[in-house]
Specification:
Blueprint (H helix, E strand, L loop, with lengths): L2 H6 L4 H13 L17 H10 L5 H5 L5 E4 L3 E2 L1 H7 L8 E14 L3 E9 L4 E6 L3 H7 L5 E5 L2 E4 L2 E5 L2 E4 L13 E4 L4 H5 L4 H15 L9 H6 L5 H9 L4 H32 L9 H10 L6 H14 L6 E6 L5 H12 L5 E5 L3 H14 L7 E4 L5 H13 L4 E4 L13 E6 L7 H8 L6 E6 L5 H7 L4 E5 L10 E6 L3 H15 L2 E5 L14 H7 L10 E4 L5 H12 L5 E4 L12 E6 L7 H8 L10 E6 L1 H6 L19 H14 L3 H18 L1 H4 L14 H16 L7 H9 L2 H4 L6
Parallel strand pairs: 2-3, 5-8, 11-16, 11-17, 12-14, 12-15, 13-14, 15-16, 18-23, 19-21, 19-22, 20-21, 22-23
Antiparallel strand pairs: 1-10, 3-4, 3-6, 4-5, 6-9, 7-8
Helix pairs in contact: 8-10, 10-11, 11-27, 13-14, 22-25, 24-25
Length: 751
């Protein structure tokens, strides 16, 4: 068993027995997992090339799916082509007799092969500029050929340039490359260098499907397939590669998309069931402490915060370990909710751990929580990498003895010598910044403690419930009543002097601090964008040169970044030039202007996260998006407050998307609305990142467009688990979990 699997989850004997059973069921000699070199037409040499792109077995090859299709199913003739002027499909197919061929010299010592064909209505020409000797040899005069390609017109002559061409026997249409819907596969560079072309891929994949499709035993019972209108697995694979019509292709896609989301959701459900099976001590809520704390707050909690706390209280008072994600926009009050969760939990015995990704954030949380609890007799300590050795040893001793009730810290909390007396609750902030193993190390310092994860990335509810389906989910959508909306403006590069002048006035007269963000660390020959380094230098020649200007970027060491951020937080710097490294950062109350250079280069979610760095005090806050003159001229910002964002009716070109993204930023500060639009524009991968979510890379399933299958998959999972909680009636499902999804399974426990 891999060490990261052991560390990720506490697997009891019951779950281990199931794991061993599944491993026993999985026979690596299964015919579908035969080495690809033994497939006819491959061999040892080509198999190494396939291996280099992750194709090792017959099953891998069958799962090498087309990226698109060409419709060559319509058979035309010269008369049809002339009458319609253009083809009715992507690449129509025509059958003709080769009349003559000739090699002609063209400019620059180049040649072409010109072939004249005819059908019953007229003549047409086929031209080859490459592979002239080859085509001249295989094309025989007076033979009939099937030709597929884009027809063009030249001086009343119909021409095809480098079409797909195969010999035709009267009455037969057995071609893989013409006369039907043709799959197009991705061709990595190594394929091109090794002459593994589209025709070859079609041939060997068809060979694999015909020979091995009867081994594709379906894991879905017949009654489920019928009830939910799914084709069987073999039919799906056959039609995803070689569909006879588009209706069958869509049915095949639907089935294979379902497979992907089904197994992902099943894995998440197994993980969730596992955590829900972990018994912990029932918490007697410290209601009196919380009531006293709330009475001292100068404001009331929002409805979103109260709702999240209701969820947390139910978790804490059950005998099952809480495993909940608290999601909210920047400034929604997640930290306060997590602190109240701690106050409900801690007493003379129970302890809390608060894990954050950076020292500067740990310091900020320590100061903020200490301030909140200054009137209470609660022992709080901070443990970070830079904690002096003597103080650290004292903290470790008092933590073990139970004298410390709340310990806030970074990765230092995960060290082996950090021992709690009775860890009852773990708070993990910016949870995507920690790996599964790291989170598990903290949780294992207690006996199934309650765990509350926090994320400040706004995600549409449906998407969040899918991605984090292994967690219980609470979302704070309301913002504090006293929070002023950040004023956002779109300006062009031509306005920089005015922007800098505005920033200068605010620094001098209102004690403001300013972020200036660049998309790059260093100059790029390929991108005409200003780097953070160059911008930092140029600001010395502007009206801002009289101010203290710092520089921070991702290539710095972590302690260098922390030092610069601390200087900015301590008001030792007036202006901070940065890359997106500040996207997740500390609160700087006087940083109330952010200028984002070349804003069109950023996604919506990223722009919103950057904007969230300002507006953390009672002062007016400003976000200025700087873009090119061309983009600025296309944007409609004259009536931005009335701009309607409708992700459901979204159909724009790439250039329009860029403009719409900036218009949306100006129009609203609602992170969830922006994330919905970003999802529609750029997909979940850009919005979240696979590292953050643990989301596998789906080949077909698209969270943006195929969400209807999520409900279907959940229904079927429920049916299966109710019928067979340990899936013993569905051995093939278990087999696939550990064969096709082995990388994901190492982070999951079976329940």
């Amino acid at each position: 068993m891999p060490p990261d699997f052991r560390e990720a989850f506490l697997i009891n004997k019951y779950f281990l027995s199931i794991l061993l059973l599944i491993i026993f069921l999985f026979d690596m000699n299964d015919i579908l997992f035969t080495n690809i070199q033994y497939l006819q037409g491959v061999g040892p040499k080509r198999s190494k090339i396939f291996n280099s792109v992750g194709i090792f077995t017959i099953f891998d090859l069958i799962n090498f799916l087309p990226i698109r299709y060409l419709d060559r199913s319509i058979i035309v003739n010269t008369k049809t082509i002339i009458q319609t002027s253009i083809s009715n499909s992507d690449q129509p197919t025509i059958i003709g007799k080769l009349i003559y061929k000739e090699i002609k010299n063209i400019s620059n010592n180049r040649q072409l092969l010109k072939c004249q064909f005819k059908d019953e209505f007229g003549n047409f020409t086929v031209l080859f500029f490459n592979g002239i000797k080859y085509f001249s040899r295989i094309l025989v005069e007076n033979n009939y050929y099937i030709i597929s390609g884009k027809p063009t017109f030249s001086f009343d002559d119909i021409e095809f340039v480098h079409p797909e061409i195969e010999e035709y026997t009267a009455g037969e249409m057995n071609s893989l490359n013409t006369g039907k819907i043709i799959p197009i596969f991705s061709q990595p560079e190594i394929f091109k260098k090794s002459y593994i072309n589209q025709a070859y891929l079609r041939k060997i994949i068809l060979n694999a499907i015909h020979k091995y499709k009867h081994y594709l035993i379906d894991f879905l019972p017949k009654e489920i397939k019928n009830n939910f209108h799914f084709v069987d697995l073999a039919t799906a694979y056959e039609n995803i590669h070689y569909p006879t019509d588009f209706k069958l292709l869509e049915a095949a896609k639907k089935r294979l998309k379902f497979n992907e989301i089904f197994f992902f959701l099943l894995l998440m459900k197994i993980k969730k069931n596992y955590y829900h099976s972990l018994l912990t001590h029932q918490i007697i809520l410290n209601e009196k402490l919380v009531e006293e704390f709330l009475s001292k707050l100068p404001f009331k909690l929002t409805t979103g915060q109260l709702s999240a706390l209701d969820d947390i209280k139910k978790d804490l008072t059950s005998n099952k370990s809480m495993n909940r994600l608290l999601q909210g926009d920047v400034g929604s009050g997640k930290t306060l909710v997590s602190l109240i969760a701690i106050l409900y939990t801690i007493n003379e015995h129970n302890q809390a751990a608060f894990l954050v990704p950076t020292e500067i954030l740990a310091n900020q949380h320590y100061k903020k929580i200490t301030q909140f609890l200054q009137d209470f007799n609660i022992r709080i300590e901070l443990l970070i990498g830079s904690t002096p050795k003597k103080k650290k040893l004292k903290i470790l001793e008092e933590l073990k003895n139970g004298e410390i009730q709340i310990l806030i810290g970074t990765h230092a909390l995960l060290e082996e010598n950090v021992e709690f007396n009775h860890l009852a609750i773990c708070i993990i902030d910016e949870q995507h910044r920690f790996g599964v193993e790291q989170r598990a190390k903290l949780i294992q310092k207690g006996k199934n403690p309650h765990t509350l994860f926090m994320s400040a990335t706004p995600i549409p509810r449906t998407l969040a419930m899918t991605i984090y389906s292994d967690l219980d989910l609470s979302i704070i959508q309301t913002m504090p009543a006293n929070r002023k909306p950040i004023k956002t403006y779109l300006r062009s590069h031509d306005n920089l002097d005015k922007i800098y002048s505005f920033a200068s006035d605010k620094i001098q007269n209102d004690n403001y601090q300013v972020y200036i963000v660049a998309p790059l660390v260093e100059e790029s020959d390929k991108l005409e964008l200003k780097s953070a380094n160059l911008l930092h230098q140029e600001l010395q020649q502007t009206i801002l040169n009289k101010f203290r200007i710092g520089l921070i970027h991702g290539k710095m060491k972590w302690y260098e970044k922390d030092e610069i951020m601390q200087k900015f937080a301590n008001k030792e710097l007036d202006i901070l030039v940065s890359t997106t490294v500040i996207e997740v950062g500390i609160d700087v109350p006087d940083a109330n202007i952010i200028i984002i250079m070349d804003a069109h280069r950023f996604g919506l979610s990223q722009l919103h996260q950057l904007r969230g760095r300002v507006g953390r005090s009672d002062k007016e806050a400003y976000c200025v998006l700087v873009t090119t003159n061309d983009i600025y001229s296309k944007a409609n910002i004259t009536n931005s407050t009335n701009y309607i964002i409708d992700p459901q009716n979204f159909n724009f070109s790439q250039d329009e998307i860029t403009v719409k993204r900036l218009e949306a930023m100006v129009s609203t500060t609602n992170g969830f609305l922006l994330s919905e639009l970003d999802l529609k524009m750029r997909g979940p991968g850009n919005l979240l990142g696979t590292q953050q979510t643990g989301l596998p890379e789906f080949k077909l399933f698209d969270l943006s467009n195929d969400s209807y299958l999520i409900n279907t998959a959940n229904q079927i999972i429920q049916i299966m688990l109710e019928n067979s909680p340990n899936l013993e009636k569905y051995p093939l499902v278990k087999k696939i979990l550990f064969s096709s999804f082995k990388d994901e399974m190492k982070y999951l426990s079976i329940g």
